[in-house]
């Protein structure tokens, strides 16, 4: 700015210099300053950085606890994908069908995929479903119950009219018990664990960590602490953005 101030006085004081030349010089100076600002501060746009921008990373200690459940795990631990989910959330189920189940298959052995509970108040069966998953986890069958809940989403999560979320907890719990039996769980232990302090603590810890990480809706995903904020308006586009972010972190 000091340079432009110093140069303006001699230019305007010079006799015989037309007003058009003065205007032209001013435009050139302004354009140079604007261009310089773009080069200095522009960097890459969010679209070129998978929506990551310059946002700070959420710490691994917040996103993952030692007893958090993994769907897949990479030996090198280089990239960790964390999803905060609600089992009765239609958007979560759609992500599962179109994106995350494919990520789980395609990146097996390359990334660690962690899931955390974040049941929302608007979904009356979200907590019972989370309890079923956590009770199964106590018998080493978390991943299997996770898949059973999402693979059968229409069966228990949606009302008979197909337009609303289901609220029949008794019917849903009976279905969850059926899934547990199919997985070969000890049913007496499973039923006892459903309402246990350990199961409730796991669900509440997920909620607390999600809130600390800034989660307000589901699904919310983080790649190595970077909150994934997709820009696409189709599942194909969102899947592509997520893979690009994961691949960048893999290097």
UniProtKB/TrEMBL annotation:
Pfam families: Thioredoxin_4. Keywords: Disulfide bond, Membrane, Oxidoreductase, Redox-active center, Signal, Transmembrane, Transmembrane helix. SUPFAM superfamilies: Thioredoxin-like. The chain crosses the membrane at residues 21-41. GO terms for molecular function: oxidoreductase activity. Residues 44-193 form the Thioredoxin domain. InterPro entries: Thioredoxin-like_fold, Thioredoxin-like_sf, Thioredoxin_domain. The keyword Cell membrane does not apply. Belongs to the thioredoxin family. DsbA subfamily. This is Thioredoxin. It comes from Amycolatopsis albispora. The lineage of its organism: Bacteria, Bacillati, Actinomycetota, Actinomycetes, Pseudonocardiales.
